Amino acid sequence: MASPTATLLISCPDQRGLVAKIANFIYANGGNIVHADQHTDASAGLFLTRIEWELEGFNLPREIIGPAFHAIAQPLEANWELHFSDAVPRLAIWVSRQDHCLFDLIWRQRSGEFQAEIPLIISNHPDLGAIAEQFGIDYHHIPITKETKAAQEIKELALLRQYQIDLVILAKYMQVLSADFIRQFPLIINIHHSFLPAFPGANPYHRAYARGVKIIGATAHYVTADLDEGPIIEQDVVRVSHRDSVEDLVRKGKDLERVVLARAVRLHLQNRVLVYSNRTVVFA
Amino acid sequence: MASPTATLLISCPDQRGLVAKIANFIYANGGNIVHADQHTDASAGLFLTRIEWELEGFNLPREIIGPAFHAIAQPLEANWELHFSDAVPRLAIWVSRQDHCLFDLIWRQRSGEFQAEIPLIISNHPDLGAIAEQFGIDYHHIPITKETKAAQEIKELALLRQYQIDLVILAKYMQVLSADFIRQFPLIINIHHSFLPAFPGANPYHRAYARGVKIIGATAHYVTADLDEGPIIEQDVVRVSHRDSVEDLVRKGKDLERVVLARAVRLHLQNRVLVYSNRTVVFA
Amino acid sequence: MASPTATLLISCPDQRGLVAKIANFIYANGGNIVHADQHTDASAGLFLTRIEWELEGFNLPREIIGPAFHAIAQPLEANWELHFSDAVPRLAIWVSRQDHCLFDLIWRQRSGEFQAEIPLIISNHPDLGAIAEQFGIDYHHIPITKETKAAQEIKELALLRQYQIDLVILAKYMQVLSADFIRQFPLIINIHHSFLPAFPGANPYHRAYARGVKIIGATAHYVTADLDEGPIIEQDVVRVSHRDSVEDLVRKGKDLERVVLARAVRLHLQNRVLVYSNRTVVFA
Amino acid sequence: MASPTATLLISCPDQRGLVAKIANFIYANGGNIVHADQHTDASAGLFLTRIEWELEGFNLPREIIGPAFHAIAQPLEANWELHFSDAVPRLAIWVSRQDHCLFDLIWRQRSGEFQAEIPLIISNHPDLGAIAEQFGIDYHHIPITKETKAAQEIKELALLRQYQIDLVILAKYMQVLSADFIRQFPLIINIHHSFLPAFPGANPYHRAYARGVKIIGATAHYVTADLDEGPIIEQDVVRVSHRDSVEDLVRKGKDLERVVLARAVRLHLQNRVLVYSNRTVVFA
User: Fold this and answer.
1) How confident is the model at residue D3 (pLDDT cuts 50, 70, 90)?
2) At a CB cut-off of 8 Å and minimum separation 6, what does B54 contact?
3) What would the mean pLDDT of A125-136 be, rounded to a whole number?
4) Cβ-nearest to A23 among B23, B30, B40
5) Burial class (CB in 10 A: 0-12, 13-18, 19+), C130
6) What is the pLDDT of residues C183-206, one digit of tens each?
7) Which of B 51-90 lie inside 8 A of A, CB atoms?
8) What is the rounded radius of gyration, in angstroms, for the C-alpha atoms of chain B?
C-alpha cells in the first residue's frame, strides 16, 4: 500500500560529516527520508547507519542509485547494501521433525507479516511433507548421514539455486551445515533453543533442566562455521520453575522459538540488521 | 570524562531535506555527530529528531549556537531545545512517607548515574527528614490541608525559585498539585504505582488485588493538570499471583517504582525525551 | 502415557484439619498423591486446594469417588469438582475474521499440547471456513445483527448441545454474548487484546496508541455478563515504543493473544483454575 | 504482627501417604496450616514439601516439635528442617567496592522487608566503611592476597562465630572463597552478574558485550566449592541493544543484581528454598 522506498545499510570508519554527506545525497536527488538511524561504535571507530527514503519523487532511476552512491561511498571506505521495499525475497525453510516454527513462518507469510515467498521446504526427514502439501509448497526430503552429507549438501545447494533462494531459515533443522556449505550460501538464519551462550550444541533443554535454571531462552542468529557462535539477531526468555519437567521446558520453549525466529526473520527482511565483528546492529 | 557535547531536540512539520539541513548545520561548523536519531509520525505529519555532537572542534561558541540555529529553525516552523552535556540540573525531590524512591534517587545521584544536584527535598510529612539530614540535603516540611493548599503551594514555588530548581520529581508524593502550580512550574515527573491507564488515582494496589490481575505495573510520566493523564515516559511490570496479598503487591511494586522512576529521570536528564500530543518520543 | 489420575478442586470456609481430612480420604483408599497445592485467602476466610492422585491402586471405582467425597465435603460446606485426566473435553472455537488464535489453537490440539477435541468452529463471518475445511472441522457461519442476535444465539446454543461442547473459546470473536446466553452456557474463555482493566471494550490497540503507553498486553478471562470484567486467568505484555504504529501494536499483540489464550485454555483443561469472588486461583 | 508460625521443610523418598502423615501430625496436635506446598520429582523419586502452621493453639511446646516430628520422619528416611517465624537470623554482608547491593540490602532490612539483623559487614577493601558507619554496622576490612588468603579466612570464620552469623551474603564480593571455608560455613548466597550458566567467572559484562547478546541477566545462588556452579535460587534478565556500551550493561546490571539478590535472600529467610541434587525447589 505504501509507496516503495529504497534503503541503504552503510558501515564505514567514523569521521566528521557522514550524516550530512549521506543525507545530502538523498536530498539533492529529491528524496524524502522516512527513516534514518545511526550508531557509532566508538571502540571500533565505526559508523553504521540505515537510511530509508521514498522512491516517489526521487530523481535517480533505480538502476542508477547504486552507481551514484558508489561515488560517495568509495572515498569513505564504506561497505553498503541497497534494497528496495517492493522486492520479494524467496525463502527456503529447513526443518527436521518439529513443525511449530514451520507452521508459524507459513502463517506469518500467508497473513502478510513477511513480505516474501516460500517456494521450498527442505528436510532430513519425511515427516512434515503433509504440511508442505497442505500449503502447496515444494518439499524435498534429503536424508543426511555422515557418509552422504557432502553429496547431499551439493544437492541442497543446487536446489537453492534452482528455486532462486535468497535466505535459508533453519527452523529447527537438527543437522549442522558444513563450513563449505556456509561459504557457498552464507545467508542463513538459525533458531537455537537456548539463551546463548548458555547451552550451545545438543539438548539445551535437558541441560537447562539439569542445571536448575529459573529462566530459559531462545536465540536467533546468523549461521557461521562455528556452531551456535554466529551474530545474534534476537533473543527472548521465559520463566520456569521446579515444577517444570524437561517436557514443560520443551513446550514453553516452542512458544519462544517461533516468536524469536519470526522477529529475526522480519528484521532481516526489512533490512534492519547490520553485522560487524560477529555482532549485529538492529535498527528496529 | 567524555568531551562535552551539545544536543538539539527538534520537532517540526515533516518536509523534504530536514535531515540534510540539520546535519549540514553541524557539519558546516565542524561538528562531529555522536548520536542522531529521528522519528516521523506520519499521521501527525511531524518530524522529530535528537542530534548530539561534540563541542570540541565545533566552530561556533556556545552562546552563538542557539541564535545560529534559530535562523535555520524559523523557516521550518520548528520547536527546538538546545542542551549542553556538562550542565548540572538541580532536582527537587518531593516525598510523603515512603522512602524507597527517595533513597534510590539519592543513591543514583551519589554514584554518578544521574548528572544532577539534589539540593532540596519537600514533603507534606516530617517522617523522612532524617534521611535528608543523613545525606546533607535541605528538607522542608510543608503540610497540606484543603484549606492551606493554595498558600502552601505559593511557599513551595518560592522554594523552587530559591533553590533554582530545574526539575521536580514526585517520588511517591501523595498529594495532587493544582493546575495553577503546574502552570507556573511545568517540569515535573511523577511515578504512579500502576500500569496506566489501569488504576489511575488512589489505591491502585488495592484495586489491582480486587480485580485479580496477574501482572502489576508502574508508570513514570510528566505531570499535567489532568491527574495521571500526562505523557508517559516509561513503564514496567512484574508478575503476581493469587498468593500475593495487597502487602505483597505493595512490596513488589516498590521495586518497580524505583527503577521505572529512575529510568525516566535519567532519560529526561540526558535530554532523550520529546513530548508532543500528550505522548513521548524517547530517543534511547 | 502416564497412568490416569483424579483431581479434586475444592473451596470451603477455612478451618483446622482440612489438609489432613482430604489427604486422609485419598490415603485411606490407597491413592498416591502426585500433586497437591493449596491456598488460604485469609481476608475471605476461604481455603482452596487442588489435589491430584493416581487412579492405579486406588480402591474406589471412579463412579464411587464423587459420592464418597461428598460425605466429607458436606460438613465442610465445600464446593468441589472431580475430574479425570483421561477425559477428553470438546471445544468450540468462535472466531470472526482474524485467524491467528484459531490456527494456534488447532496446532496445539493437533500436536498434543491440549488434551481435547475441536469438533466445531462458529463464526459471524464466512472468512475462516477454508481453514476449518483444511483441518476437517465443522464450520457454522452464523451472522449476527442487532435484530437477529437473540434468534441466532438460540441456534448457537443448539449447536453447542448437538456437538456436546464442554468449553467455548472466544478466539477473537468480535461480538458480545448476551447475559442470557452466558447463563445457559457459562463455560467460556475469552481473549481480550489489552492489559485489563486498561482499555476494555472496543479498539484497545488504537486507544493504547493514542494514550502513548510503552507496554501493551493481552488478557484471557472467563466470560461473565459484564463485558471484559470476568475472572482473569492469564495476562502477558510486550514492550512498544514511539516507533510502533497502530498496525505494529496489532501485529505484536497477535503474538501475545495467541500465547496468553493458549496458556489459559491449557490451565483450564488441566483443571488448574479455581474461581471465587471474580478472581482465579491458578494452581500452576 | 501475625501470630508466629512453625515451618517444616521436608524431603524424602516418594511413597503413598506422605501428605496425610505430615498433615495428621499437625492436625492431631491442634495446628492450623496456613501454607502447604509440595513437589514430587518423579525422575529422582523424591517428595519435597513445605508446611507452615500457626503456633497459637498448637498443643506441642516449641522444643518438643522437633523430637516429636523426628519419630515420624525417621521411618520415612526424611531430611527435614524446622523453623519458627519469629526467629531473627543474623546476616553478614560481604562486599568489595560496589555499594549498590549493600545499600539495597540495608534499606530492605531497615524497612522491614527482611526479618533479620545485619550486625557485620566484611570487605577486602576499605571503601564502603563510611556506609557501614552511617548505618551503625561493624565493618571489618580484611584484604586478601594469594599469600594471606588462608590466614584471612581463619579470621573471617572467627568473625562469623563471634557475631553469631546465620547467613553470609556475598553482595558483589569479588573474591573466591576456598573450599575449606565453604565446608566450615556452608550457608552462603552469592549474586553473580550474569545469566548463569552463561559467563561464569570474571568480567561477565565485558564478555556479554563481546558476544553481542540482546539480553543480560543476574543469578543468585548458594555457594559451593565449584565457582558459580551452586544451586540457583533466582534469576532475572533485562533487554540490551547495540546502543549499550559495557558501562551501560554494568549500570543496567546493577538494577538486576540488587533485586535478584534481594528476592533470593528473602526467599531463604522465609524458609521457602529446598536444595537437592544441586537444584532448588522454591515454594514461593
Assistant:
1) confident
2) B3, B4, B5, B31, B32, B34
3) 95
4) B23
5) exposed
6) 999 999 999 999 999 999 999 999
7) none
8) 21
Are the CB atoms for C116 and C93 separated by under 8 Å? no
Q: Would an 8 Å CB–CB cutoff place A185 in contact with chain D? A: no
Per-residue model confidence as pLDDT tens digits over D12-26: 999 999 999 999 999
pLDDT one-digit tens code per residue, B195-235 = 999 999 999 999 999 999 999 999 999 999 998 999 999 99
The position carrying cell 514526585 is: B170
pLDDT, residue A97, reads 97
| Domains within chain C, CATH numbers bracketed | 5-84 (3.30.70.260), 90-282 (3.40.50.170)
Nearest-by-Cβ selection for B39 from C41, C196, C243: C243
At A29 the pLDDT is 96
Amino acid at B254: K
Residues 208-247 of A with CB under 8 A from D: 211-215, 217, 231-237, 241-243, 245
Mean pLDDT for the stretch of residues A71-94: 97
Percent of chain D with pLDDT over 70: 99
Tell me the per-residue pLDDT of B147-171, one tens digit each, with 9 for 90 and over. Answer: 999 999 999 999 999 999 999 999 9
CA distance B260 to B170: 13
Cα atoms in the Cβ-side hemisphere of radius 13 Å centred on C164: 5
The helix/strand/coil state of D284 is coil
**What number is the ipTM of this complex?**
0.94
Q: How confident is the model at residue B191 (pLDDT cuts 50, 70, 90)?
A: very high
Characterize B148-162 residue by residue with b for buried, 16 or more Cβ atoms within 10 angstroms of its Cβ, and e for exposed.
Answer: ebeebbeebeebbee
Cβ contact B171:B124 at 8 Å: no
Question: How many angstroms separate the CA atoms of B32 and B56, rounded?
Answer: 9
Among C56, C34, C283, which residue's Cα sits nearest to residue D19? C34
C-alpha cell at C49: 486446594
Place of cell 498423591: C33
> What three-state secondary structure class fits A104?
helix
The C-alpha cell at D223 is 555457594
| Nearest C-alpha neighbor of D271 from the set D253, D257, D284 | D284
By residue count, chain A amounts to 284
Active site annotation includes A228 = yes
Three-point CA angle D222, D74, D33, nearest 5°: 70
DSSP strand pairing (C5-13 vs C32-41): unpaired
Please calculate the CA angle A79-A85-A87 and round it to the nearest 5 degrees. 95
Helix pair A204-211, A246-269: axis angle to 10 deg: 130
Cell of B3: 568531551
**CB distance B215 to B238 below 8 Å:** yes
Q: Is pLDDT of B2 > 80?
A: no
DSSP at A255: H
**Cβ atoms A143, A123 nearer than 8 A:** no
Chain B residue with the nearest C-alpha to that of A38? B36
Q: How far is C113 from chain A (nearest CA, A)?
A: 8
Tell me, yes or no, if A183 comes closer than 8 A to chain D by beta carbon.
Answer: no
Q: What is the mean pLDDT of residues A16-24?
A: 92
- Read off the C-alpha cell for B209: 488485588
Nearest-Å Rg of the Cα atoms of chain A is 21
HSE value, Cβ hemisphere, 13 Å, CA-based, for D202:
3
Cβ contacts of A259 within 8 Å, gap of 6 or more: A104, A236, C255, C259
Q: Does A38 touch chain B (CB under 8 A)?
A: yes
- Say how far apart CA A8 and CA A65 lie, in whole Å: 10
Residues of chain A in contact with residue C255, where contact means CB-CB under 8 angstroms, are 259, 262
* Encoded amino acid at C264, one letter: A
C-alpha B63: how far from its chain's center? 26
On whether the CB atoms of residues D221 and D190 are closer than 8 A, the answer is yes
Q: How many residues does chain C have?
A: 284
